[in-house]
Amino acid sequence: MSTSNRLLIVSYRLPFTIREREEGVELIQNSGGLVSAVLSMAERMGQSQHGTSAKIHWIGHADSSLQHIDKSKLENETFVAHPVFMDDDVHKGFYEGFSNDLIWPLFHYFPSYANFNESDFQHYQQANTRFLEELTTLIEPGDFVWIHDFQLMLLPNMVRQAIPDASIGYFFHIPFPTYEIIKLLPRTWRQVLIEGLLGANVVGFHTSDYVQHFLQSVSEVLSLPTIEQRVVLPERSVLVKDFPISIDFVKFNWSSQEPEVVATRQEYQDLIRNNKIIFSVDRLDYTKGITYRLQGFERFLTENPDWHDKVTFVMTVVPSRDKISQYQELKREIEEAVGRINGQFGTIGWRPIIYIYRSLNFTELLALYTACDVALITPVRDGMNLVCKEFVASRYDHKGVLILSELAGAAQELSNALIINPTDTQEMASAIKQGLLMPLPEQERRIMTMQHHLQNHSVFRWSNDFFTAFDETMTNQPDVETTLPVVPFITAFSEARQRLLLFDFDGTLSPIVNDPSEAQLSETLAETLHTLAEHSNLVVISGRNRAFLEKTFAGIPVHLVAEHGAFLKNPNKPWTRLDLSADDWVDSVRPAMNQFVERFPGTSVEEKETAIAWHYRRAESDDIEGQAVELATQLRGLSSSVPLAVIQGNKVIEVKPAQHSKGTVAVTLFDDKPYDFVVSIGDDTTDEDMFRQLPNWAYTIKVGAGVSFARYRLARQRDVVALLRQMSDALVTA
Length: 734
Ligand code: GDG
What we know:
Elements: E1 7-13, E2 16-21, E3 24-29, H1 33-44, E4 56-61, E5 79-84, H2 88-107, H3 118-138, E6 144-148, H4 155-162, E7 167-171, H5 179-182, H6 187-197, E8 202-205, H7 208-222, E9 226-227, E10 230-232, E11 237-242, H8 249-255, H9 259-271, E12 276-283, H10 290-303, E13 311-318, H11 325-345, E14 353-357, H12 362-371, E15 374-377, H13 387-394, E16 401-405, E17 418-420, H14 425-437, H15 440-456, H16 459-475, H17 486-495, E18 499-503, H18 523-535, E19 537-541, H19 546-552, E20 559-562, E21 567-569, E22 575-577, H20 586-599, E23 604-607, E24 612-615, H21 624-636, E25 644-649, E26 652-657, H22 662-671, E27 677-682, H23 687-693, E28 699-703, E29 712-714, H24 717-733
Parallel strand pairs: 1-4, 1-6, 4-5, 6-7, 7-8, 8-11, 12-13, 12-15, 13-14, 15-16, 16-17, 18-19, 18-27, 19-20, 27-28, 28-29
Antiparallel strand pairs: 2-3, 9-10, 10-11, 20-21, 21-22, 23-24, 24-26, 25-26
This protein binds GDP-alpha-D-glucose.
GDP-alpha-D-glucose (GDG) binds at residues 33, 173-174, 245, 281, 283, 316, 318, 359-362, 365, 382-387, 390.
């Protein structure tokens, strides 16, 4: 993003309270993580010091009771707010229905709580359209639109359709579940939701697991190919990457030392009579694991009578979504459990659980983060969870123990916490005991390690990483337009002294044919290659086996690379095996492929020396591409003795050890001599490894349609033949 562009943030909720006063409307900014991150961006872009036009625009829903206010007045020094209004019934179906009563439970692995309702989906579409309408009145060329969260999954593609060259980023704040969960959505819904997200240039998630799950769904639902972390669409690619959200470390660390916080903390400790304190705070939500947490604490008290009257659990629950029945039910369950535990274990002078059902102000929150001995953060599923990061950051005294659920996204970063499974009450009870007894040096070591991580991975880094990835994506966007400039290419080739030519076989040197065994090299092309090979290092780099290549190129002094880089043969030399992995991995892949051969007549399995492939060019089934995606997904999930690459090629699914590729061989060959001319030509997915790994001055040429990392393009296989002919003519006439 260039520094002069405007930032337009879109999220369900505006991060401001809008107050009407006699002198006009006031915009009071809340202090959430997203606002902090965006403010840091504003500083980076030098926007906050500039005039109105440079302010950040924030588009979000506002209550229809505010519809009468003058929208042109909604701004403060940094932000301009753009409220989106909608009819109450649309809002209800969109927000309470589709968002909170379907996507939220489903994506947090509570499918039985999910409510599939056709009219809610229509309201979701209408509401996303309302956001689009607001956005299109604002957006100008060069603006960057950053859309947030599961309420607005359709919006990126809506913006893309309306403004094809818009710069769009999207960040998903909740977990993205496995395809098995996505499959529960009706086909059309899952299709438009995934297409919706792919309208963005960059789609961000908290963890690499969520990224993998999303890519799996893209592949299953839309049968789109991916190259590394990019989804390849016909006209562009989408970067899908993990950006773990975080907090403003310094703010939490410093604010905890403010006199007001210190005084409040002292007050709490006095009230609790210096008992050890366990603390938790969450919104009322079944994903937060509150009832299991109470069971874990109950078990701890049952097993450890010596801790009675010495520990107090301060459990804060912030009211939320109380119009939905599951939330009302959950509240009842929590209150019953608290009552039961306090009734069973409490005494006149000791209440084991202090239960607070309201939100805390910032001072109270920090006072409790720093007063407690143990923070008990045990969601059964959480996209990230910021509370645990805030607790760690607040502990400027380097004391305190974090007990954290392995099912929070944050567990992947905070491995120095006591990591537990939130439904395992025995593990929780043991962790509570371990936490309460943990020696100070160990507390200090764990907290400091986690603080060090959070200092280096604050919310500012999160937003910065997102925008950096966005910049790179836009500059490295595969160039689908550039056709090869033939004249300068031929000149560079004929004037070079050391030439390296890397050619794929099927679809590049030979046209694609229905029966792979019938693919041939024409006589004229064989002559051309002969001439080229006499003046260059010419390498045929293919997925074919050794025997086929040796037979096809007999008599031509070319280097041969077989099975995607597993074998290399220099002219007049024996083959060298470059793949050194043990080959027992194939035993886990073969049965799955054979099953597909049985199910889909016309398909076949080819076993090579270091790879195994399922060919489906001659399949009789209509939906064979969908089945191929199914197989690829199944194969990616197999556990095996060596890391494997599952390649979705042209009518073939191939599995091979991940360690070698056409790219690794191309680089090895390139490093061999001081080449001053390099060209690599190919048409298939596996050729992308060559294109990406060769130096950026090399001529990398993609044959045919589809997004590619190659710099240039030739439309058809026969254009390759013509080009090679021109190259050989240039040598002969030189
Ligand atoms: C979603 C995802 C992801 C809570 N109670 C009080 C209070 N809070 C503040 C905390 C924290 C925030 O609310 C809660 O953030 P979480 O991350 O824990 O959870 P969600 O609201 O569900 O957020 C989540 C997040 O998006 C960011 O991407 O981490 O996984 O579900 O900042 O401090 N603040 C105050 N009083 C309270 O009583 N002042």
